[in-house]
């Protein structure tokens, strides 16, 4: 007998005879009612067991976490909140779950505890919902670009290039650990480690992506990226997924249009296709908000917040204008936003970004034309000679969600910049070829996928929106 997904059973239009459901027990009440979940939906289906005709020893095996197969009829439910339930004729325990030992008991667990059990936390309602939303968002990313004719490119994970020039790379070695080449002081010489070549895990697929955009026109990457930054924050991971479109002949304005359209599309896709999961996550969030003081509670419920982003265009503000706004804002010593900027040229701290997005504009903001010396080497220098055509998209509650730019297409200007920053031209000879042969204006950006998932699910810690978070503290599993 083929089993039917619980999602399909719950969506039935009429009762059904002889169905089989398989899943994991969430709870078992009154020796009679099983709440069964199979991951296809946030909702459990209630299964009513004929407990009078079932041996006690079998009933005892129906415990939270056990895998069971149930055969019976789908009947209209007498209970509130559910249209159908399963009147079980028989059940089989596929896999026992020791009630004393199973960590995911039906009670509220701290997110901290759940992170330590990332392999089991997905069996909770919240993490099931988050991971389904994440999957739908991935699909929406591909759908958006594929429908527009972008070519999906897989850029290397092991690479010799530091795309961001920020020195935050994990080194990769092909040599046995006790046989690494050492210099005279006895320190490991990473220059010779990957089949005689120095390599690391990619921080971004952008540079390779650019070479493909200069042939295929519009491309995107969607893959894992790695940063060895030791920042222990709720917004940073050592391993995260990035989406990087790159488009030939697009200038910075086209780049902003693309980013805004793309983000609104994927958010809308999730709103339309994850209704039940988002409703559940919204409820969870409201519950959490209740424990906060009134002043710290979010003004909008989750779905309202997503709707807001869909119905408002992102505010476009130059870095210079943003600095003026920050300078004009009266510092409030008692409140959070007290570190306001006084100097043009400084990088924005997250406090500044939050002030602009959450207090000043109260909507997503695209900041552009940053000072050249706080941005990466590949960005297009403006005619003023001191700013570059960079753009960061800032989101409420998240901060930076996108970083991108129009790229420096002029060979001489790019080489001069690289020399100034001490970036090896020989190592990036292939990148410079794009400027040597048929160079053209082009632009792109990178969206941190987990930051998008954070925004859409309303979660507050990035470790809770990726299946197995890799942070300085956590690299098990
Ligand atoms: O701003 P970033 O460093 O830009 C780049 O890597 C460019 N090469 C992108 C491009 O133009 N093609 O990173 C892009 C985005 C950030 O805006 C942020 O959303 C995310 O990637 N990000 C991280 N997400 C999680 N953990 C980290 N450690 C992240 N670092 C960046
Ligand atoms: Mg950035």
Write up this protein.
It is a single chain. By secondary structure, the chain is of the alpha+beta class. The chain folds into 2 domains: 6-107, OB fold (Dihydrolipoamide Acetyltransferase, E2P) (Beta Barrel); 125-168 and 203-464, Bira Bifunctional Protein, Domain 2 (BirA Bifunctional Protein, domain 2, 2-Layer Sandwich). It has helices at 6-10, 56-59, 111-116, 118-121, 125-147, 206-216, 252-273, 275-290, 302-311, 319-328, 350-361, 411-421, 429-436, 449-457; strands spanning 16-29, 33-37, 45-48, 67-76, 84-95, 151-152, 158-159, 171-172, 199-201, 218-226, 239-248, 315-318, 365-371, 387-395, 399-406, 442-448. A hairpin with a 7-residue loop joins strand 4 and strand 5 (84-95). It is globular, with a radius of gyration of 26 Å. The two termini are 35 Å apart. The site of 4-amino-1,4-dioxobutan-2-aminium adenosine-5'-monophosphate (4AD) has 23 residues, from strand 11, strand 15, strand 16 and helix 14. 4-amino-1,4-dioxobutan-2-aminium adenosine-5'-monophosphate binds at residues 163-164, 204, 206, 227, 229, 236-237, 240, 242, 244, 400-405, 444-446, 448, 450-451. This is Asparagine--tRNA ligase.
